[in-house]
Amino acid sequence: MTSYRSRTRLVVAVTASAALAGAATVVAAAANAAAAGCAVTYSVTSQWTGGFGASVAVKNLGDPLTSWTLTWSFGAGQQVTQAWNTTLTQSGAAVTARNAAWNGNLPTNGSASFGFNGSWTGSNPVPAGFALNGTTCTGGVASPSASASPTGGPTTPPTGDVLSQVHTAGRVKTSGSAVQYSWPGVYFEGRVRGTGVGIVLNDGAADYDVQVDGATVTTLVTPGAGTRWVNGLSNAEHTVRLVKRSENPWSVSEFGGFVAAPGGAILAKPAARTRQIEFIGDSLTAGYGNASGTRDCAGDQVNRTTNADLSYGALTARRLSADYQINAISGKGMVRNYAGGDLGTDYRTYYDRALLSMAGDVWNPGTWRPQLVVVFLGTNDFSTALGSGEPWTADSLVTAYRSAYSGFLQKLRTRYGANTTIVAVGASPFADYVQQVVQERTAAGDSRVRYWLQDGTGLDLLGCHWHYSTRDDQLIADRLGTFIGTLSLNW
Predict the structure, then answer these.
(1) Which of 367, 354, 355, 377 is nearest to 454 (CA)?
(2) Which residues are catalytic?
């Protein structure tokens, strides 16, 4: 992938006539929406000499739309060079972005996002204004009812143990007044009363979605250290969910809890779900570039378009009303990594850790006892040809893979007990090897290991670098959910 030099980051949000520093999205929940209204977040996600990357989020505050066109003009000669999740054209300073085939429907309060790379000389100012289907985006129909910004309320982090005020099923470790984590898809759920909620973060690498009452209200792109605010909520009780979208295994993310706006209060945390599912895998499980809409991805586009919350694992778990973990690392295999990289390590090197970059770190499962574990590892072991410096032949690689797979399943069985069902996923070209491992274990008396074939029929592989698209993830979740429905699970 492209390596950006002299990277400078600028994030701005355009709401009404104001520019807010931070990856903020205006959210409206007006009871009587007018015919037209919109809000736009324009974020310069990376900047280098002569070039930049940007993301744009548009929210429809008016009546539902079946297609959309967003227009703006650059003020300093910037030129778009590449775009994704949209059809984008430029004539002089005027830019026109139209919906892709899959994101044209915008219900009231619905949002769509896209990104692009561009060039600049001299300066790179934010466009002064945007219009959605010809309507100027002012941040509301009458007035915006919610917004996210890095200011707008008290910035004092919550006191006490974060885990006493939020529910999470992810692999986290307490660090002072905060929790730290590394795996993708880690989520935190809380409850708040009042007109706003702050999210205390220290993370310069990962992206997050913030969801209020079940709807995504903003995406925080590498938010850094501080408190991000969602304001303008109705003065009532709300559920809040923060979820880590992206995969940044070699950095440590930190969450300091939720903060209520003045006059409000943090309420008792939501109860844990009785069902637990653990998903183990590689980039296909992590949601790598699944929202890109194109296989040709460069630079930060993979990070911006990876959404673990829309991966097949997250979708399957929510369909089954289960808490879940997505313990996935791109490029790692059961015994061999992609293209033979990082010899001497593999997925199993990191599995026991909460903080992936910390050698020797060991996560304490605590109350985590999933009734179902889904293992999908093998793509990186077999998708590339063996190199001259690798220690395997084609036959010995298969032998090593099968032995390691069986040992890993035994590790899971020892950790979680006899009542946990383990689903081993097979796909081309390693499906037969997985099936053989499962047959050997069931013949040895492990009746709760099951094989499931992910056959790939109907997948478009339009994620970055031929990975699953969000459409593919939904299709796989539907199929996997149907298969899980045939199992006798202890839940």
Answers:
(1) 377
(2) 283
Q: For residue 479, give Cα distances in angstroms to 33, 83, 312, 319, 473.
A: 38, 32, 10, 12, 10
Q: For 78-117, write each residue's pLDDT tens digit.
A: 999 888 888 888 888 889 898 887 788 888 888 899 889 8
Q: Shortest CA distance to 55 belongs to which of 70, 44, 47? A: 44
Token digits of residue 252: 């440590």
HEC string of 242-290 equals EEECCCCCCCCEEEEEEEECCCCEECCCCCCCCEEEEEEECHHHHCCCC
Cα distances from 242 to residues 83, 301, 338, 354, in angstroms, run 27, 21, 31, 18
Structure-derived torsion over alpha carbons of residues 158, 217, 292, 326, reported in degrees to the nearest 10: 40
Q: Which candidate, 213, 18, 219, places its Cα nearest to that of 126?
A: 18
What is the C-alpha separation between 22 and 41, in angstroms, rounded? 10
Q: Tell me the C-alpha to C-alpha distance, in Å, between residue 269 and each of 14, 148, 173.
A: 33, 22, 18
Phi/psi-derived region of residue 482, left when phi > 0, alpha when psi is between -120 and 50, beta in every other case: alpha
Please tell me the pTM assigned to this model.
0.72
Taking only the tens place, the pLDDT of each residue in 131-149 is 888 888 887 553 333 445 5
**In whole angstroms, what separates CA 273 from the centre of its chain?**
21
Q: Which two tokens stand for residue 449?
A: 């290991």
* Phi, psi at 150, each rounded to 5°: -80, -5
Measuring CA to CA, which residue among 419, 418, 424 is closest to residue 438?
424
For residue 356, how far is the Cα from the chain centroid?
Answer: 17
Strand order from edge to edge, sheet including 449-453? 322-328, 275-281, 372-376, 421-426, 449-453
Cβ(356)–Cβ(422) below 8 Å: no
